[in-house]
Amino acid sequence: xxxxxxxxxxxxxxxxxxxxxxxxxxxxxxxxxxxxxxxxxxxxxxxxxxxxxxxxxxxxxxxxxxxxxxxxxxxxxxxxxxxxxxxxxxxxxxxxxxxxxxxxxxxxxxxxxxxxxxxxxxxxxxxxxxxxxxxxxxxxxxxxxxxxxxxxxxxxxxxxxxxxxxxxxxxxxxxxxxxxxxxxxxxxxxxxxxxxxxxxxxxxxxxxxxxxxxxxxxxxxxxxxxxxxxxxxxxxxxxxxxxxxxxxxxxxxx
Length: 254
Ligand code: BG6
Fold this sequence. Notes:
The protein is of the alpha/beta class. The protein contains ten helices and eleven strands. It has helices at 2-20, 37-53, 66-73, 101-112, 127-133, 137-147, 159-165, 170-178, 225-234, 244-253; strands at residues 24-28, 59-62, 85-88, 115-116, 151-155, 157-158, 183-185, 188-190, 196-199, 214-218, 239-243.
């Protein structure tokens, strides 16, 4: 029975990879909307993926969110992490400290025995403050490290949910719905066609800098089906780690 289930999940992953144009989709059992352990299965899948691609000296960039926070809790010591450094991919996006990219990066490092660097930047920077901050030598150093990342791990959120969670003003939430934002990733918002309709101003990795990096997207739950589909239209990742509920809901939509 276990075997039949595994084959079923593999088939779902292959179908989804084809549909989304993603090289590889790993589907785990369950629905992360309702079952907490599913996010830990994402973590196991992600660690396996890292073990097969990470090389000594690599910089590994992580984004924030509850999914990545759960993934971090599944990391453990392994030789592949010797000489690697975890960094947050982007600066503050208005999240609680537990699910900020910096916190998650430090947690990954603590569990794996890797090194880490933090990126301290305030949220909601004015254009002027932003411009001068990126010229600060200490900020420039860490930004260079982030840009050099070989691997990027990130979550994908439902646009409305993310705007609300980040305590965004009503005006902003209304603007996002007027622009028909469906998905959020890296602080960018996307419509159903995968076009960028809004971007939160923060420093760190920009979407157009993902080229040549091994990008692992981790997102699941039936409620995120539309968001995952929209983001993958923007830019199919190298690997998508998702769950059965999201995978089925996406395939139902296309
Ligand atoms: C955020 C990331 O912190 O988490 C986003 O910056 C992502 O890129 C979001 O969309 C997903 O959050 P969660 O809690 O659903 O994993």
